[in-house]
């Protein structure tokens, strides 16, 4: 996270881009936003929404760092990383395709609970350079 704005009483340095996860939203809304300017007195900031394609006001406290993306090197494998909406790994499963990975994740109780609570999961095929020898 590269700070581009001065520290505010509403949180740490604001990032150039962030994940917007409204704390009061129960439907699992999320968006990638680009904060613009400085925070307003009410603790919000104007940001460009990737989802909506326009400027919106968001609460600074609801901005979270973007998940780190690993380098995409190596050969695709049949291993899939399953993450929650915050980008945290819930489980890893083996499958030939997305549908198989989704089915395999549904068999893992923790993944099932997380999917129900957050309204879904994210799936990404892992590359050989991302796996340890014990995974192969």
How would you characterize this protein structure?
The protein has 136 residues and is α+β, with helices and mostly antiparallel strands. Helices cover 14% and strands 31% of the residues. The strands form two sheets. It has a five-stranded antiparallel sheet with strand order 4-3-2-1-5, with no helix packed on it. Strands 7-6-8 form a three-stranded antiparallel sheet. It is elongated, with a radius of gyration of 18 Å. The chain starts with 17 loop residues before the first strand and ends in a 9-residue tail after the last strand. Residues 1-11 have low confidence and may be disordered.
Largest sheet: 5 strands, antiparallel
Fraction in beta strands: 25-35%
Poorly predicted runs: 1-11
The N- to C-terminal Cα distance equals 32 Å
Number of helices: 2
Q: Care to count the β-strands?
A: 8
Find the structural class using helix and strand composition: alpha+beta
How confident is the prediction overall: mean pLDDT? Answer: 84
Percent range of helical residues: 10-25%
What is the topology, as strand order, of the major beta sheet? Answer: 4-3-2-1-5
H/E order of the elements? EEEEEEEHHE
Estimated radius of gyration = 18 Å
User: Which outline best applies?
Assistant: elongated
């Amino acid at each position: 996270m590269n700070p581009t704005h001065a520290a505010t009483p509403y949180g740490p340095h604001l990032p150039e881009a962030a994940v917007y996860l409204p704390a009061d939203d129960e439907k699992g809304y999320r968006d990638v936003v680009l904060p613009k300017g400085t925070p307003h007195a009410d603790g919000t900031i104007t940001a460009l929404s990737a989802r909506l394609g326009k400027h919106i006001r968001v609460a600074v406290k609801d901005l979270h760092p973007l998940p780190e993306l690993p380098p995409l090197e190596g050969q695709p494998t049949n291993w899939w990383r399953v993450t929650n909406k915050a980008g945290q790994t819930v489980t890893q499963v083996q499958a030939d395709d997305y549908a198989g990975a989704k089915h395999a994740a549904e068999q893992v109780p923790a993944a099932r609970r997380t999917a129900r609570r957050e309204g879904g999961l994210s799936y990404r095929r892992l590359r050989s350079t991302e796996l340890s020898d014990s995974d192969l």
